[in-house]
């Protein structure tokens, strides 16, 4: 089996993967070009891509006789892969769910705290040597304890975020999701399922945890942002294109919402014009799952899918088209 890993993985997992075939690593760790992705599909039985590999319908369809039969994605989000096209070409797709739940919820919580308490702004202020000392009205912000958190997408990560917010900070939880929570979890969190409109208009904090699908593309657009409270903060650790970033920049500029904490962007690593200059944003470089423990677990999870494929047994994390 010829296996390609498109970006560097934690070393121990790269080593462990060698037992399943002849592994090619991307030593430079540069994102693959469209041409390199096409070549990969022709030359390797298994490709282990990640979010920086745009395996869209056009790229996949341009390879008429692919050697690749498995795309073992390193990551839970698979919006960079055209699942329908992959299925038409009999290429199976797997992902790494379950192992990045807490790491991602931690970053969402960090962004919520940073945005609400203006900590990014405060740090910039201090490092710019602009701080003249303590005073009662300096850099006032808003308390999160006891506030209302609206969660969009109540899957594993949404639930983990709700638990941290509710049990750690006494926050009330509203959620918008396709399916209701199990009764026991809803009870534990005192969580109420509401419409998106209700969630946006009632929550001081809105945290996005839904996958990027055609149905969630620009779910938070100009109209949705207008429904939000002027003291609200938007947190996005899901995928950039769930938010219309241009509309978000406008809303932040006009003070229609109070702030945003973002880990993901529509055209990452590029940011929409104007976003970087806004003081009322906290901007992180897509590091939600970025703990050593989690990245090792993600690698092992992707490897388990490779192992199952090599052994001809059912794949543990086959992705179904949503
Ligand atoms: C994920 O697992 O989806 C992370 O965002 C990296 O792609």
Please provide a brief summary of the model.
The protein is α/β, with parallel strands linked by helices and 322 residues long. It has helices at 11-17, 34-43, 57-61, 83-88, 101-117, 119-127, 156-169, 183-189, 196-202, 222-227, 245-254, 292-311, and strands at residues 2-5, 22-25, 46-48, 70-72, 92-94, 148-152, 172-176, 192-193, 205-208, 233-236, 259-262, 281-283.
Structure, explained:
With 322 residues, the chain is of the alpha/beta class. Helices cover 37% and strands 14% of the residues. It contains 12 helices and 12 strands. The strands form 2 sheets. It has a 7-stranded parallel β-sheet with strand order 8-7-6-9-10-11-12, with helices on both faces. The chain has a 5-stranded parallel β-sheet with strand order 2-1-3-4-5, sandwiched between helices. β6 (148-152), α7 and β7 form a beta-alpha-beta unit. α1 (11-17) packs parallel to α12 and α5 crosses α7. The longest helix is centred in the C-terminal third of the chain and has 20 residues, at 292-311. It is globular, with a radius of gyration of 21 Å. The two termini are 29 Å apart. The model has no long low-confidence stretch (mean pLDDT 97). (2R)-2,3-dihydroxypropanoic acid (DGY) binds next to loops.
């Amino acid at each position: 089996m010829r296996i390609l890993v498109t970006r560097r993985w934690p070393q121990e997992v790269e080593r462990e993967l060698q037992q399943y075939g002849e592994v090619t690593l991307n030593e430079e760790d540069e994102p693959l070009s469209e041409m390199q992705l096409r070549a990969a599909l022709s030359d390797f039985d298994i490709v282990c891509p990640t979010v920086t590999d745009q395996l869209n319908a056009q790229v996949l369809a341009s390879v008429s006789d692919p050697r690749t039969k498995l795309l073992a994605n390193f990551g839970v989000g698979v919006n960079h892969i055209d699942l329908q096209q992959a299925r038409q070409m009999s290429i199976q797709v797997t992902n790494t769910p379950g192992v990045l739940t807490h790491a991602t919820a931690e970053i969402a919580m960090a962004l919520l705290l940073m945005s609400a308490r203006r900590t990014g702004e405060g740090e910039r202020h201090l490092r710019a040597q602009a701080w003249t000392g303590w005073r009662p009205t300096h850099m006032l912000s808003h308390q999160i304890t006891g506030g209302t958190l609206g969660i969009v997408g109540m899957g594993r990560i949404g639930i983990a975020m709700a638990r941290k917010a509710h049990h750690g900070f006494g926050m009330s939880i509203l959620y918008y999701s396709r399916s209701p929570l199990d009764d026991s979890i809803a009870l534990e969190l005192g969580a109420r399922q509401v419409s998106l409109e209700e969630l946006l208009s009632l929550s001081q904090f809105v945290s996005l945890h839904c996958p990027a699908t055609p149905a969630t593309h620009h779910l938070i657009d100009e109209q949705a942002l207008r429904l939000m409270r002027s003291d609200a903060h938007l947190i996005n650790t899901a995928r950039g294109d769930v938010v219309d970033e241009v509309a978000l920049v406008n809303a932040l500029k006009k003070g229609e919402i109070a702030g945003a904490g973002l880990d993901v962007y529509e055209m990452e690593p590029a940011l929409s014009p104007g976003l970087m200059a806004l003081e009322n944003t906290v901007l992180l470089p897509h590091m939600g799952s970025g703990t050593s423990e989690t990245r090792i677990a993600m690698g092992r999870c992707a490897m388990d899918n490779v192992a199952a494929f090599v052994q001809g047994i059912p794949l543990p994390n086959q992705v179904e088209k949503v």
